[in-house]
Write a structure and sequence with these properties.
The structure holds 3 protein chains of 3 kinds.
Chain A lengths: L3 H7 L4 E4 L2 E4 L3 H10 L7 E9 L4 E9 L4 E9 L2 E3 L8 H12 L2 E3 L34
Parallel strand pairs in A: 2-5, 6-7
Antiparallel strand pairs in A: 1-2, 3-4, 4-5
Chain B lengths: L1 H13 L4 H38 L15 H11 L10 H21 L14 H9 L2 H11 L3 H32 L4 H7 L15 H14 L11 H4 L9 H26 L11 H5 L6 H30 L5 H31 L3
Chain C lengths: L3 E6 L11 E7 L2 E8 L7 H6 L3 H8 L7 H16 L5 H29 L5 H20 L8 E2 L2 E2 L5 H25 L3 H7 L7 H6 L5 H4 L7 H4 L20 H28 L18 E9 L2 E9 L5 E7 L1 H13 L5 H9 L4 H5 L1
Helix pairs in contact in C: 2-3, 3-4, 4-5, 4-11, 4-13, 5-6, 6-11, 12-13
Classes of the chains: A alpha/beta, B mainly alpha, C alpha+beta.
Chain lengths: ~140, ~375, ~375
């Protein structure tokens, strides 16, 4: 996408690596807000948030889709342990953020109702972390 | 009735049983017959419904127990009787146990009020139609009690819906019955049937002057029976099983029995007041041709009258089952709207039509 | 003013299509708050991927959405093929398209039957299952399985189709439009059905994008977005079809879109059969799936499944096991939008609206 340069001009720290891949280091919410509300981009749908444990940090990929322009954009954000919430922009992010909190332990600042979504509330640990070992004694199938 | 009474006395006299015994047992006898016949009828109805629904949905239906699956419902009934009765935690035990009985027993009385043939009428009150309507409204109390006592929210919602539905649909039904009473000049069910006699066996039926009333009545009866498309009280997709969610075993069987017994008796009631009851569809009784010289001719005629009534009501039951196989469930809002905004005014209009009709045909009010 | 009644719909409830729990608060019969609780069917498919090789993971992929096994296996295979940078033959892609479209019909048929059951009509499910049964029999003949097919492999499909099977599919397609017409006869103009679905559960365009609703639910709101057309994959760019869309935004619109989609699928399958009867390509690539090592990289495949956009994201670190697999499914987001649709409605309409979203729970919990 050529017009990603507009984004670069507005946010200096944004790194454009590919035609549909950008890396955001800070101001995630304002970048997404800009992408959503600017008519050139019009990314009005957040299809999903993908979180991957990269050992030293957690990589969050916000996959955006524009229903008007039929474009996709992957916004990369590296969260050490917490990330800002984007519920204000995309309501669909609530379940995604809860799931990521549940499985990878990323805290989304500003998401007041963050809770374990798929696992029981009493679950110990965050399974999708690479260093996760299931040492919950309550689970009989542990060994 | 007298004929049967003398026959019964003579039968007992043969075995040297005193007449006083016959006098005492004769009034009780019909209810024993009803209770027995009812079980058989319900078993047949349940099987028939399953077979008919299977037919509509291109299945075979029950076909393993007995010949053509005839014993399937018997097997089901035995299974239900053998099941454990569970008292849910927090339930009101007395009311919980009482509810199925209250829901079921009034139906027994309803069966006794119907004139099955010109003599064979267990309870021939002069206002039997009024009594019928009063008692027909009774089972809903059992349903509300069941919902209240089960300590289950699904049951409670189902019971409340059932009560609301009952009240809503009772009123247009009574208006329609009123117009039938006006036509027949009588509140006795047997008199209403006999008033439908005509030179042409079908033209005398009240369904013709009162076709609007018949349709209203039919809809109201389906609604009162809580059958599809008015099965909101037991809407399984939202309320699991409605008021009967917590019931099991014999108590559930009583609800089930009551439901089908009232399905039958309600269809018989419609057939009685609108379709000439036990009167034959043919010009004369078929028995008169077949057994003209038989000494038991009168008995054969009575049996034939019962058969005619059964035939007419089974037609109605078939239609009710057909509707069940076809229609989705109404929403509770349109359920209320249908009765208050549509059936209510129509039943009043129907009443006015009947009065005008009566004035034209008979020249008096 | 009545007391507020808190009622737990599910997880064991006849019509939540699996194990969904809805914590509902009722004022009388009016819903004042509803909270979907998911996770009762969570099988950890994303975690399982980390400890299995690509080939070992392949059979599990069908379990993501048990009613649309072909979609999920296609999404996974497509992502793997893209990372390996291998080109599949045209015949492979046509077979895959055919299977996916048949699967779409089967899935929509099941939805139609269960939705009518939710609305209280008991018959249509038998009619739709009759046709679905024929599709499952065709799948069984082709793949050996009725639900968990495990048919697509990396770079191809497991068995080639023969003309005999294609003829059987064709025969089935000839009776299907009539069957669909029959469903429409008892459903589309039914006054009670219209009463229960028209203007119920309005899902506006802005809701769709805000809540990431995709698939037929979105197309019923007037957004003409079909990823088969917008981002063509498999053989779709060579096939002609019209995206079914309408502006009703309600449950009735969603019903109409699905009915229309079944008809579209019939057209698509017929085109595939035409191609497959003439084409005699190979249906596999020369790769050894057992020793498969995928170069470092990441890819997201976009598939239009019967329940909306299905994404499979694979991140590979160069080893024989995927580093991260993420499933994005349509139902996950459809569950989330439910409170917006039902609050303020009668309890009676809860299941009627929820059913129209076509949510299946294995896809939500994964």
């Amino acid at each position: 996408m050529n017009n990603l340069n507009i984004l670069q001009e507005k946010f200096n720290s944004v790194q454009i690596t590919d035609s549909n891949k950008i890396i955001v280091h800070d101001n995630l919410v304002s970048v997404l807000e800009f992408l959503k509300n600017t008519s050139e981009f019009d990314f009005d749908m957040l299809t999903t948030i993908i979180a991957t444990d990269k050992i030293e940090r957690i990589e969050l990929i916000y996959q955006l889709y524009s229903t008007g322009n039929n474009n996709t954009l992957n916004v990369y954000y590296y969260a050490p342990g917490a990330a800002p919430t984007v519920i204000g922009l995309y309501k669909s992010a609530y379940f995604d953020e809860c799931e990521i909190y549940d499985l990878l332990g990323v805290k989304f600042e500003g998401n007041k109702e963050l809770k374990r979504l798929l696992l029981p509330d009493s679950w110990i640990g965050h399974p999708l972390l690479k260093n996760y070992t299931n040492n919950d004694e309550r689970l009989a199938w542990n060994d | 009735m007298n004929y049967l009474y003398f026959w019964y006395v003579q039968l007992l006299a043969k075995y040297n049983i005193p007449k006083i015994f016959a006098d005492i047992t004769f009034p009780i006898l019909p209810f024993c017959i009803i209770a027995g016949v009812m079980i058989v009828v319900v078993l047949i109805l349940v099987l028939a419904e399953r077979k008919i629904l299977a037919l509509f949905t291109q299945r075979k239906g029950p076909n393993r127990v007995g010949y053509f699956g005839l014993l399937q419902t018997v097997a089901d009934a035995i299974k239900l009787l053998c099941k454990q009765n569970i008292n849910p935690q927090g339930a009101d035990k007395i009311l919980f146990n009482l509810a199925p009985i209250i829901a079921f027993s009034p139906v027994l009385i309803l069966w006794g009020l119907i004139p099955y043939s010109s003599e064979f009428e267990f309870m021939g009150f002069s206002i039997s139609i009024l009594l019928y309507l009063a008692i027909a409204a009774f089972p809903v109390i059992g349903i509300i009690l069941a919902g209240y006592a089960s300590n289950n929210k699904f049951s409670l919602i189902g019971a409340v819906r059932s009560g609301a539905q009952m009240i809503t649909y009772e009123i247009p039904m009574i208006f329609v019955v009123l117009s039938v009473v006006a036509l027949a000049n009588s509140m006795n069910l047997k008199d209403i049937v006999l008033a439908q006699m005509n030179t042409n066996p079908i033209m005398g039926w009240y369904i013709f002057p009162c076709i609007l009333g018949f349709l209203i009545m039919f809809i109201c009866v389906i609604a009162e029976l809580n059958r599809c498309p008015f099965d909101l009280p037991e809407a399984e997709s939202e309320l699991t099983a409605g008021y009967s969610t917590e019931y099991s075993g014999m108590r559930f069987a009583l609800f089930y029995l009551g439901e089908y017994a009232s399905l039958f008796v309600m269809s018989v009631f419609i057939a009685t007041i609108f379709m000439g009851g036990f009167l034959p569809v043919t010009q004369n009784y078929i028995s008169e041709m077949l057994f003209a010289n038989n000494q038991f001719l009168q008995v054969f005629i009575y049996i034939e009258q019962v058969m005619w009534l059964l035939l007419k009501s089974s037609f109605l039951i078939f239609i009710i089952m057909l509707i069940r196989a076809t229609l989705p469930r109404l929403s509770s809002k349109s359920l209320m709207n249908l009765s208050w905004y549509c059936l209510m005014p129509l039943s009043v209009i129907n009443f006015i039509i009947i009065i005008v009709f009566k004035y034209i045909t008979e020249g008096r009010m | 003013m009545t007391d507020i009644m808190k009622i737990n719909v599910g997880p064991q409830h006849p019509s939540t299509h699996g194990v969904l729990r809805l914590i509902t608060e009722l004022d009388g019969e009016k819903i004042i708050s509803i909270k979907p609780e998911i996770g009762y069917l969570h099988r950890g498919l994303e975690k399982l991927a980390e400890s299995k090789t690509y080939l070992q993971y392949l059979p599990l992929v069908d379990r993501v959405d048990y009613l649309g096994g072909f979609f999920t296996s296609y999404a996974f295979c497509n992502a793997v093929e893209h990372l390996l940078n291998i080109q599949t033959t045209k015949r492979t892609e046509y077979i895959r398209t055919l299977c996916m479209e048949l699967n779409r019909i089967a899935s929509h048929l099941l939805w139609l039957g269960t939705y009518m059951l939710d609305l209280g009509a008991s018959s249509p499910i038998f009619y739709t299952f009759r046709e679905r049964e024929s599709i499952l029999a065709l799948f069984e003949e082709l793949t050996g399985q009725r639900m968990m097919y495990n048919y697509f492999t990396f770079g191809g499909v497991r068995f080639d189709v023969d003309n005999n099977w294609l003829d059987k599919v064709n025969d089935f397609l000839n009776i299907l439009p009539k069957a669909i017409g029959n469903y429409e006869k008892i459903i589309t103009n039914n006054a009670i059905f219209i009463d229960r679905t028209k203007n119920k559960g309005i899902l506006t365009k802005s809701f769709c994008s805000k809540y990431a609703i995709t698939g037929p639910n979105m197309r019923a709101s007037g957004l003409e977005i079909d990823f088969r057309q917008k981002m063509p994959y498999s053989a779709y760019n060579e096939l002609g079809f019209v995206v079914s869309v309408n502006n009703l935004s309600d449950s009735y619109g969603r019903y109409l879109v699905r009915i229309q989609e079944m008809r579209t699928s019939i057209d698509l399958i017929k085109q595939c059969i035409m191609f497959l009867k003439q084409n005699k390509d190979n249906v596999s690539c020369n790769i050894n799936p057992i020793k498969l090592k995928i170069p470092q990289g990441e890819y997201t495949s976009y598939v239009e499944s019967s329940r909306g956009l299905l994404c499979c994201y694979i991140q590979s670190d160069g080893s024989e096991k995927p580093y991260r697999v993420k499933w994005r499914t349509g139902s996950f987001y459809a569950v989330q939008v439910l409170p917006e649709l039902v609050i303020g409605q009668n309890y009676n309409d809860l299941i009627a609206i929820f059913g129209s979203l076509d949510v299946i729970l294995p896809e939500v919990d994964r």
